[in-house]
Design brief:
This protein is mostly helical. The protein contains six helices and no strands.
Length: about 180
């Protein structure tokens, strides 16, 4: 058994284990994730200064594109969060909903929270003029999170929901709506 499978199994044991432990872990894991996000953003600004990257040229188009990415990214993430809350769970992996959320925006994307966050990062990079955030740290964050989602989170969901999740996975794209032909 590889490291990712061990993590997925440990996550499954936590998700299906003691509710008190989950309630205690939820704010800790949530805070760690937000600290990781803040660290990425601060590191990108530091890299811009340290390597003397030029700022992204500020034009009305930069502002418009930045807002076109940032605002829908916030809405998508918030909508996803609300759907999790309505299903009596949190977006924190140790305390998710007990049922598989497949309605609303989850009928188009298996992970719209992350899709929204990626849009927020790209939009923030453009709005702040950070070349490192836009072209280095956001793509790096997407790669890291995709590896985590594919190797850990999806494995845990397969263990927890079985065929229901496998069927959902076939129908719905990971981040973007899947384009499928009607056979």
């Amino acid at each position: 058994m590889g490291i990712f499978e061990r993590i997925a199994n440990a996550l499954f044991r936590t998700v299906t284990g003691d509710p008190r432990k989950r309630r205690l872990l939820t704010p800790v894991v949530g805070l760690l994730f937000f600290c990781f996000l803040a660290l990425l953003i601060l590191a990108s600004f530091g890299m811009d200064r340290w390597l003397h990257f030029p700022s992204i040229i500020y034009t009305p188009w930069t502002l418009i594109i930045g807002l076109i990415l940032l605002v829908p990214g916030c809405v998508i993430s918030l909508w996803s969060f609300v759907l999790f809350a309505m299903a009596r769970g949190t977006p924190v992996p140790v305390n998710p909903p007990k049922e598989l959320v497949t309605k609303g925006i989850y009928s188009f994307s298996r992970n719209p929270m992350m899709t929204g966050l990626y849009l927020v990062f790209f939009g923030l990079g453009l709005l702040t003029g950070s070349l490192a955030l836009t072209l280095i740290f956001t793509p790096l964050f997407i790669i890291i999170m995709t590896i985590y989602v594919k190797k850990v989170e999806e494995k845990e969901l397969e263990i927890q929901f079985g065929q229901q999740y496998l069927d959902y996975k076939k129908k719905v794209g990971l981040y973007l709506p899947a384009i499928r032909s009607k056979d």
